[in-house]
Specification:
- The complex is a heterodimer.
- Chain A is α/β, with parallel strands linked by helices.
- Chain A has helices at about 60-65, 95-100, 105-115, 120-135, 150-165, 180-200, 210-215, 245-250, 250-265, and strands at about 20-30, 30-45, 45-50, 75-80, 80, 90-95, 170-175, 200-205, 220-225, 230-235.
- Helices cover about 35% and strands about 25% of the residues of chain A.
- In chain A, α3 packs across α4 (about 120-135), α4 packs across α5 and α7 crosses α9 (about 250-265).
- By secondary structure, chain B is an all-alpha fold.
- The two termini of chain B are about 20 Å apart.
- The chains are: A alpha/beta, B mainly alpha.
Amino acid sequence: MAEPALALVQSSPSPARAQIAFDNVALMLGGKAIINTISLDVAAGEILCVVGASGCGKTTALRLAAGLYQPTGGSVRFEGEAMRAPRREIAVVFQDYGKALLPWRTAAGNISLALETIGMPSAQREARITELLAKVGLAGHAAKYPTEMSGGMQQRLQIARCLAQDPKVLLMDEPFGALDAMTRQGLQDEMLALVASTGATVVFVTHDLEEAIYLGDRVIGLLPHPGRVGLELKIDLPRPRDQLATREHPEFLRLRRALFDFIKASE
Amino acid sequence: MRWSVLGWRLASFAVAAGIIALWQLAANQRLISPVFLPGPDRAWASLMRGFTSGDLLTKLMGTLTHMAYGWLLASIAGVALGAMIGSSKAMRIYVAPTLELLRPLPVSAIIPVAIAALGLSQGMALFVIAFGSLWPMLLGTVHGFAAVEPRLYEVARVLHMSRLAVIFKIALPSAAPDILAGMRLSLTVALILAVVCEMLAGLDGLGQWVLLSARSFRSADLFAGVMLLGVIGYVTALAMGAAESRLLRWQAARR
């Protein structure tokens, strides 16, 4: 079987336009190369999906972009500036919503945490909380504790808390991975609508290949041991995307085939 | 449902009433000499007399004050120290052996040391009560701080929360169940030590009242004092339980 997909593809860095730029990024953890090397540009407003076999460093790459890890080689830049620490313009949606929410705060309280931290006066908070809850479809659930909510609602709440930061970038680490198929599809569409209205850049890590194609403007496939870019697909599917029409589109099926072949070959 | 709750409540009161009735019966039958065992009637009368014409109220307030000051001091010190130790791995490693050495030390062994250093004073009582009731809170806080979900610290980093905000908005609330459990245990320890200190140092309080009554064979007074101590223990535990369930409402939501 021919393996054109495995040809090493590196997008050429163009720091002028890139909002997030990975420049020959390498990461060693405990003497082991986790990532070696990734060069990658993410343009403002782009939705970039990252897929790859487990252990390929998808999540690690996302944490590097968030500033939660520092690269041991190369550099990660945000709007031309080296990332030394997490920044408020970059919000992170964690996969494990149950752990990322404060169980002792209600839905409103969890959103308030972000608003308190950005220094919003308490008089303005309530209106903003109501607005954000409505935006993610949680109007009327302000007084509920996270443990009283379903998984989908909890993840919506985490997204609302991230939006409260007014982020320029949303980094999402398999945000819908733990949800059932119906909930996941609903949230995919809601997320696309939210992102379209805020114009935020999204880096979306997932192990669901169809989800990556459905959501992304571009899909990056990582190769494992050590993590590096193995495939880059431009997704030219019409927007707004539609759960049925988009997934039946011949281009969707072609991309899906290419991505499956890549993952199969990389394992 | 409500009726069955009421039924159980009634049954539990019936048990208590039955025990008091047995006690009255034993006293009336003089199974034990009235010098040593007064009936509930005599104990109650003595209790009333103590409050109306005696200084039982002063003694009660004395014990409550000793208990409260020692417990509060221990709470503040325990939570502050526990937060310091629990939030730093290096501190835990350095301090853990010392804590393990001090913790199992019987507080009764500390009392002579405290008396030698501080005399038979209120300060000595404060020190002993605080020292004894420090441990459950200290260890609870250390554990609570060490067990904070690491993901929440990452959320704090992404949000750029200040160190102080992380402690007050994430670590403390997360550790609250452990801290409150420690405070509840400490409450009992504080009461015990308040009584012991009053007995040993002759400080104004129920401990001294009970000891002096026993020595002069005033068994009714003795029992009145003991009953009052039981009430203190019961009421403080009840108050603590109410505070706990109010502060930890979010945990009830989990179930």
